[in-house]
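To illustrate this point, we now present one chain and its tokenised fold:
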Amino acid sequence: MQYINALVSDHQLPVIFLGLLGISMLVYAILDGYDLGIGMLMLNKSEADRDRMIASIGPFWDANETWLVLGVGILLVAFPMAHGLVLGTLYTPVALMLAGLILRGVSFDFRAKARVGHKKFWDTLFIAGSMLASTTQGYMLGKYIVGFESGLVAELFCVISAACVASAYLLMGACWLILKTIGHMQVMAIKNARSALALTALGLVLVSIVNPLASPTIYNKWFKWPEALYLLPLPLLCAILIVCLFITLRQLPKHQDRHCGRPFAMAVGIFVLAFSGLAYSFYPYIVPDTLTIWQAASAPESLRVVLLGCVVVLPAIFIYTALSYWIFRGKSTELTYY
């Protein structure tokens, strides 16, 4: 504790916890994003295809949600004022998101134990839960971008945001299947990725337009000279990745399954760049144009105690996550239950 006191000032503590919160939500969006996408991609697929898709996420999907729990926990402990304001305003979509995640968890386990005639029912609930969780997350992101404003235009943007986030998750899920499967499943995933990429790109353009228009502060950050010149590489790199991903998807599949991991890596890059743009836009506010991270932060004494716990817990989470992905690397095998 004395080492932390000497190393970190009171002013730096909220910045550190904002960084931890951002990392948690970004990793969640990437990891749980692809398995939510696969859940939605199961719609109208045969039982054999659904089993193969479930097999590709089986070892990972439950642990991926750890990052959401971590992020909400950091928000509650480090920024209690923001936690109350954000989750209070978004009470209904948060409740619906949790209902979707519960549906996924229950149906994932029950499909393995249900009678043959009931398996499709649980698969349908898994698909519905994936759609509900994805769209509510997109709706909440839209609400955050417009500063929790109400009204027809704001609600319309939130609905569009819900569709675009769901499409981004579909893109991640399809790219994951390209990496983890072969044969007709991989070909189908390539086609799905092409369609999802178009809507994802449209969503990024829409957010890039609405974000500065919704707040004069954000507008000045992106278009004030010379900051605009320094930030230009961010949207340019994102556009280049989108074009490269489109070209790569047009060229797949290749002989001996070459380059099958490139689409997922590029999709992750797009997520990271888009998230970085949002983070820059809103900093230092944790509630847009309302609360800065220093206004919303807990007492420095409390943050130092929590930071000590994070020093222990975060590396453990990273290690077991990396270990699980290393152990279950390679193509997914046929799903069997014993």
